[in-house]
Inverse folding.
């Protein structure tokens, strides 16, 4: 099984690497770059929501903090981008540490809304402070090189994927996190410190999001509290991860690709019909959940699992199905 | 490996279309980037209407007359969704995929600030028909122009008109919503008031969309002569309703932007009466022109027929953006598709442009704080008088006297 | 006898006015099997929760290998070598049997490969090797109880707290479990076991501690304790 | 500025009254169906526009239109609930999240439809009540109470009381409370979970739509208004404790007080910052909402 995965991963990566060489259509590269960004955001959100069972409705706050860190370091203290970008991840991680300690004590909907309130509070702080430029936002020196941003975004998201894949699927961390999600007090008796592990998962989810925020700032050249600290980042990352399938790596990836490319295709090619694309996208998302309550990936793997079982002639009772790979029921 | 070959094939097909040679055509491709959804949908749609009216009227007359041939215009729309990143994507799509000749730009400063660098890269001229934030012009974008002067240029006029009332207002409370445009508006009002010796008792920036009734209850205690508010359409309506509900009538109520919008009068009815606003155009401006619409009233009628709603200066400014391109193209006699040299010449032509339109005099500043903004037009003070937007200042342009002080809500 | 591996020093645990555990003291020496018995609600599980760190004692102290561990959280005690099972069985339902044990193995073997190897050893020991890749939620009650013991064993504990691991099993399963417990004791693990089935307790315990209404009413060899009038009364009715 | 204290308190109550209407239905629906409805703002918007057009068509005062708006949207909610029930029935995915994504899609669709059908301009629903206000004065303390907002507060409290009695006194209320405490057990006791949930969802959508009309009278309405009201509805419900109905008024009034006090006494720029910061702190201190009674 593993050998085929690596081959598949290598071939996809190689296609993506040669893409900018065979085309210099800037809009096409920009769309794929933004798709990468959303894949990264959806995966980062799923690390906390799917694997650890904590729904972060303020996920966008790390994106905004990353964006503002890079912008402030570059514009106010003349850092160069190669230093300002990692700094975005570091600051996001630090904020995750301090915000995580009190907030991770909460559970379920309360954690979700507390993180939402936190992200709204940070947005108001950005609106009021001088250093962030308040509502006027901040402009960064425009460096509009589609290939550079394509490669850098691909690099960051691939590194994030590999990091998550290693930590969540191969190393011990993934299992510990799932144990915490399944039964926190039971896990304590086995030597797992829930608070430490949850904070680690929170930071692991925040750092890539912060770096992607820093990338966004330099790429779009303008940020303001409404765009980088608004609800768009959180809402879309949540919908993509859940639509794709929680608690897996490939769920958010597929969810991000499908939803983003659908939205962009409708937006670009139904442009003459004003907001018709919003109606279609909303309808599609709603219908998809009605017909696939387990998310795209959950249904897919459920289907593949069931077919494999039939081929092997085993009488598979749904309960006993091998569920390690699939999205799991997250407990509140 | 079979899958990879297929995947590569699909990708190359997808990317093949820009390689097609650019064939000659007899129409100009015009990109339109406005926010049709998201928080700024109202302003974005009004701007789009202005561009549509220009394009439809122009095409109805056969198009732009260049040398012996008439070239129509075809609009290519993109919804910026009130998100700077979507604006940048829209700009790149229109520049590389549709290969537009020039762009009619967004309503919000944030989207404009994200779109402008992309168009600078592709050297595509853009005129925004409705962006009023001073931020844009301070960045000195070479390829970006604006037909509506920024609010730090227009904001002073209403305060100057009010200062001439007798008895002139001596105290004021000025507030603005916490977004780039509204904050700039409130600051413009404040600077003008202080220059004219009006004592500003309270100056606050409030969260946008906030229910201001408690704030107004506190203002009611201060009893200032003038209350001035910078915000967007809905916030203005809510503020008047708050004042109405706590039964507090200041001597003068000045607000911007939204007073000139039909929704303001339609929603508030007689409560909209005697509210002051800032504007640069109304249907009763005396301006003569030989381009598309002979005068303001003709444009007003055409807009009312097209959209069943009276036009305001944002829509007029957007149509004028089209006129500016039309005039500049005729001057440099460039035919579609515009080459880079054509577009360079188009910028030069726009900078030298000085024309009379139904909207008023159009002249773009060539340097300074208002670089590439229209400084030819004269800022006006308007007031709602029996359901219509009436110019009450400055004196030479006034069509009626300003009604001051405000008649208390109860006696209307 | 060397010094005790576990010393309970006049421990009290009060929930509001109720004294679930009231001034209890006893010691456990390495390699012993101690039975903790008493009628329902006598404070047995509360004592377990105190020893394993889920509850901090209101008064009194607990010493493990001489170190005062009162108030330390469960995961710190697990590292120090206290493993426990739960009266209400707590497998990780969404994970396989193997993964359940691997998680416990991380305590001693941080790398996943070593932890997996260790987990297989534990599965063999507790007779669950054939169900390794089955989801824990699909195990029978006996299987789950074995998994509980297996997970506690994976910590390589020096002191193992077994909370009614035999209850609810049929005779053959019970015998297998007893056999496993004795095998663990032979490997040198000290065991504190709570059980209602007298036949089991009396046969395997070196010493027995009896609780009633949170107080220690008797301790000693199983035979002596069985004849102690107070114990008989506590069990057979006519509460004191 | 002590003079303004009574006004600050009154304004806090009046703003709170509006928050009660947009949160009470949602809290009921969450209690029974455990659904985080991302489209609550859009139900409010649709209700507002129905009220707006009914007012134009019938020229009646909006307060008389409230029952019609309720009935129309209660039926829509009732018919809609089975779809949501199916969405919440997914075994693998987390039902709470599936409900969230479904309603997110719904909200997006309604927003697009609203923009296309109702246009992008803002509107206001005229009402006779918005014409005047009470002016109470004693000594140098004075308070102005707008009649329309006072009517909104009265309406909000009456709904809360009606729901309270409906839950406490009627058998339907018994079934609802049983369902919210233990869905399966209630099913065993012969509570038809599906039908009761449909009624509950109908009531929730009906109440939210009615609050849209109220908002139309006090503030203004537009196709884009949904987003902000979804946020405030969530805050009030979570602050009160999810599903704990009688906590909703207090949470709503707290949010109202914070806004009015910051707008009057402290620096108005920090009003929303204070609202969100206080909500965050309250949730940290008492994780199950203000009264620690949330589900």
């Amino acid at each position: 099984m593993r050998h085929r995965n690596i081959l598949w991963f290598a071939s996809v990566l190689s296609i993506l690497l040669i893409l900018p060489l065979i085309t210099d259509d800037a809009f096409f590269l920009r769309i794929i770059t933004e798709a990468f960004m959303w894949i990264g955001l959806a995966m980062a959100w799923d690390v906390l929501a799917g694997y650890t069972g904590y729904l972060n409705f303020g996920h966008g706050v790390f994106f905004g903090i990353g964006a503002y860190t890079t912008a402030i370091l570059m514009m106010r203290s003349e850092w160069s981008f190669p230093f300002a970008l990692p700094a975005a991840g570091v600051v996001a991680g630090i904020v995750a540490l301090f915000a995580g300690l009190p907030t991770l004590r909460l559970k379920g909907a309360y954690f979700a809304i507390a993180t939402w309130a936190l992200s709204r509070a940070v947005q108001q702080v950005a609106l009021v402070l001088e250093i962030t430029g308040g509502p006027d936002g901040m402009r960064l020196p425009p460096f509009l090189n589609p290939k550079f941003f394509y490669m850098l975004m691909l690099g960051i998201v691939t590194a994030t994927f590999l990091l998550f894949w290693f930590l969540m699927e191969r190393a011990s961390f993934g299992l510990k996190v799932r144990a915490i999600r399944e039964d926190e007090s039971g896990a304590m008796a086995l030597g797992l410190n829930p608070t430490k592990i949850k904070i680690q998962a929170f930071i692991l989810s925040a750092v890539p999001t912060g770096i992607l925020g820093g990338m966004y700032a330099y790429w779009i050249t303008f940020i303001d509290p409404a765009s980088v600290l608004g609800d768009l980042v959180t809402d879309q990352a949540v919908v993509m991860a859940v639509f794709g399938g929680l608690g897996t790596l490939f769920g958010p990836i597929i969810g991000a690709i499908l939803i983003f490319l659908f939205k962009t295709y409708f937006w670009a090619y139904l442009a003459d019909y004003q907001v018709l694309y919003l109606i279609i996208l909303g309808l599609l998302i709603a219908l998809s959940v009605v017909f696939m309550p387990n998310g795209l990936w959950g249904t897919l793997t459920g289907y593949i699992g069931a077919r494999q079982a039939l081929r092997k002639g085993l009488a598979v009772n749904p309960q006993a199905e091998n569920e390690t790979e699939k999205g799991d029921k997250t407990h509140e | 490996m079979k899958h990879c070959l297929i995947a590569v094939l699909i990708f190359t097909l997808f990317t093949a279309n820009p390689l097609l040679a650019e064939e000659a055509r007899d129409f100009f491709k015009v990109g339109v980037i406005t926010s049709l959804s998201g928080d700024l949908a109202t302003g974005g749609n009004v701007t789009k209407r202005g561009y549509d009216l220009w394009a439809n009227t122009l095409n109805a007359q056969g198009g732009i007359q260049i040398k012996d041939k008439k070239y129509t215009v075809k609009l290519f729309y993109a919804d910026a969704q009130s998100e700077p990143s979507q604006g940048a994507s829209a700009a790149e799509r229109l520049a590389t995929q549709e290969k537009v000749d020039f762009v009619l730009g967004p309503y919000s400063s944030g989207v404009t600030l994200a779109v402008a660098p992309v168009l600078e890269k592709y050297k595509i001229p853009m005129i925004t028909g409705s962006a009023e934030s001073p931020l844009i012009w301070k960045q000195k974008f070479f390829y970006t122009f604006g037909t509506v002067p920024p609010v730090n240029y227009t904001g002073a006029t209403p305060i100057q008109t009010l200062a001439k009332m007798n008895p002139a207002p001596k105290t004021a409370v000025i507030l603005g919503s916490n977004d780039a445009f509204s904050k700039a508006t409130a600051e413009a009002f404040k600077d003008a008031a202080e220059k004219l010796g009006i004592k500003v008792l309270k100056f606050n920036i409030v969260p946008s969309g906030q229910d201001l009734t408690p704030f107004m209850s506190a203002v009611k205690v201060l009893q200032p002569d003038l209350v001035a508010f910078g915000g967007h359409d809905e916030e203005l309506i809510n503020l008047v309703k708050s004042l109405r509900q706590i039964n507090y009538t200041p001597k003068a109520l000045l607000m911007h932007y939204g007073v000139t919008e039909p929704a303001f009068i339609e929603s508030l009815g007689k409560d909209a009466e005697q509210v002051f606003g800032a504007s640069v155009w109304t249907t009763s401006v005396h301006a003569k022109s030989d381009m598309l619409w002979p005068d303001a009233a003709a444009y007003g009628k055409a807009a009312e027929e097209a959209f069943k709603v009276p036009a305001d200066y944002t829509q007029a400014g957007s149509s004028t953006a089209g006129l500016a391109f039309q005039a500049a193209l005729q001057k440099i006699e460039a035919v579609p598709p515009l080459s880079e040299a054509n577009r360079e010449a188009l910028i030069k032509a726009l900078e030298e442009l000085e024309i009379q339109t139904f909207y008023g005099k159009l002249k773009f500043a060539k340097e300074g704080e208002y670089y590439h903004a229209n400084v030819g037009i004269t800022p006006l003070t308007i007031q709602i008088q029996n359901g219509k937007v009436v110019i009450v200042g400055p004196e030479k342009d006034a069509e009626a006297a300003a009604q001051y002080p405000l008649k208390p809500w109860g006696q209307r | 006898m060397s010094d005790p591996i576990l010393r309970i020093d006049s421990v009290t645990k009060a929930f509001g006015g109720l004294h679930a555990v009231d001034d209890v003291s006893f010691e456990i020496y390495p390699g012993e099997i101690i039975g903790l018995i008493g009628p329902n609600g006598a404070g047995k599980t509360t004592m377990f929760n105190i020893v394993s760190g889920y509850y901090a004692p209101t008064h009194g102290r607990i010493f493990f290998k001489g170190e005062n561990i009162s108030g330390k959280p469960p995961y710190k005690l697990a590292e120090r070598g206290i493993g426990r099972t739960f009266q209400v069985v707590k497998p990780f339902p969404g994970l396989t049997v193997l993964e359940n044990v691997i998680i416990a193995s991380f305590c001693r073997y941080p790398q996943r490969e070593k932890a997996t190897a260790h987990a297989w050893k534990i599965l063999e020991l507790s007779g669950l090797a054939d169900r390794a890749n089955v989801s824990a939620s699909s195990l029978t009650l006996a299987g789950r109880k074995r998994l509980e013991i297996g997970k506690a064993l994976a910590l390589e504990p020096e002191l193992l707290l077994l909370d009614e691991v035999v209850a609810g099993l049929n005779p053959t399963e019970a015998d297998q479990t007893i056999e496993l417990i004795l095998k663990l004791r032979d490997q040198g693990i000290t065991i504190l076991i709570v059980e209602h089935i007298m036949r089991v307790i009396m046969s395997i315990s070196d010493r027995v501690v009896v609780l009633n209404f949170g107080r220690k009413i008797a301790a000693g060899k199983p035979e002596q304790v069985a004849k102690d009038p107070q114990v008989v009364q506590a069990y057979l009715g006519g509460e004191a | 500025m002590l003079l303004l204290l009574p006004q600050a308190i009154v304004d806090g109550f009046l703003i709170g009254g509006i928050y009660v209407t947009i949160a009470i239905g949602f809290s009921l629906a969450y209690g029974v169906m455990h659904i985080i409805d991302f489209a609550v703002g859009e139900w409010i918007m649709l209700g507002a526009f129905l009220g707006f057009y009914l007012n134009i068509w019938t020229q009646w005062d909006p307060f008389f239109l409230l029952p019609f708006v309720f009935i129309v949207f209660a039926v829509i909610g009732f018919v809609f609930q089975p779809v949501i029930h199916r969405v919440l029935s997914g075994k693998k995915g987390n039902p709470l999240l599936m409900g969230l994504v479904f309603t997110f899609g719904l909200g997006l669709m309604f927003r697009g439809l609203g923009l296309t059908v109702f246009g992008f301009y803002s509107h206001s629903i005229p009402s006779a009540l918005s014409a005047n206000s009470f002016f109470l004065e004693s000594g140098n303390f004075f308070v102005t109470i707008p009649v329309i907002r006072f009517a909104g507060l009265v309406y909000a409290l009456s709904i809360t009381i009606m729901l309270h009695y409906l839950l406490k006194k009627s058998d339907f209320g018994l079934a609802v409370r049983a369902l919210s405490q233990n869905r399966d057990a209630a099913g065993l006791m012969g509570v038809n979970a599906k039908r009761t949930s449909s009624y509950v969802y109908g009531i929730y959508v009906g109440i939210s739509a009615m609050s849209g009309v109220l908002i139309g009278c006090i503030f203004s309405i537009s196709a884009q208004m949904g987003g902000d009201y979804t946020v405030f509805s969530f805050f009030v419900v979570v602050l009160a404790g999810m599903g704990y109905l009688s906590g909703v008024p207090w949470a709503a009034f707290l949010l109202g007080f914070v806004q009015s006090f910051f707008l009057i006494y402290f620096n108005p720029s920090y009003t929303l910052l204070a609202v969100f910061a206080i909500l965050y702190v309250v949730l940290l201190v008492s994780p199950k909402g203000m009264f620690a009674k949330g589900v």
User: Anything to note?
Assistant: The radius of gyration of chain D is 19 Å. Chain D touches chain A through 52 residues (CB under 8 Å).
